[in-house]
Every structure is written in C-alpha cells, then in structure tokens.
Amino acid sequence: MAGRLSFIRGLVLPTAALALGGCSRNPSLEISGSFFTAWMLCIFAGLVATLIAKRVFLAMRIDAHLTPQLVVYGALMLCFTLLTWLIFYW
Asked: Is the sign of the CA dihedral 16, 17, 21, 23 positive or negative?
C-alpha cells in the first residue's frame, strides 16, 4: 500500500506542477491605454488572413470547388488563429 501511495504521489505532483505552470501569466496587450487579451488579437489576425485567402482563392478560381464553404473557411480561420498564437505568444 505504501509503495502504491508513493507511486501515485510521484506521478500526481509533477503532473499537477506542469499543468499549473501555464497559469503563471495573463497574456494581455496594452493598446492605446486599454488592455486586450491576446486571443482577441489572434482571432482578428485569423479573420484578416482568412479574408485574404478567400480573395486569393477567388482569383485562382478554386473557391467554387471548396465545399462546404462554411466548414472550409471556418477551419482555415481556426488554423490561421492558432498559427498566429503559436508564432507570437508561445
């Protein structure tokens, strides 16, 4: 029983320390005296990049082949948003 308890303690404590390490800071940016959370800016950047990609797809005439468009452009926006987060805030 004591061996099992020490194994659980040896597994839970490092896992909890790693999980709580991400709570150490709040990623917020000051823009013109107002604080914005970083994820809001990443969503905006993802939206702008998706709109640019849509223009490129329209110019290349492949937009009609990307169906269903809501899913395609939603996934593209999610990819751009997460990529922006990884590049600037990881």
From this structure: positive
User: For residues 51 and 46, what is the distance between their CA atoms, to the nearest angstrom?
Assistant: 9
pLDDT tens for 23-80 read 656 666 666 766 677 888 899 999 999 999 999 999 999 999 999 999 999 999 999 9
Closest CA to 40 of 53, 51, 29: 29
pTM: 0.64
The DSSP annotation for 38-67 comes to HHHHHHHHHHHHHHHHHHHHHHHT-GGGS-
Q: For residue 31, list its beta bridge partners.
A: 34
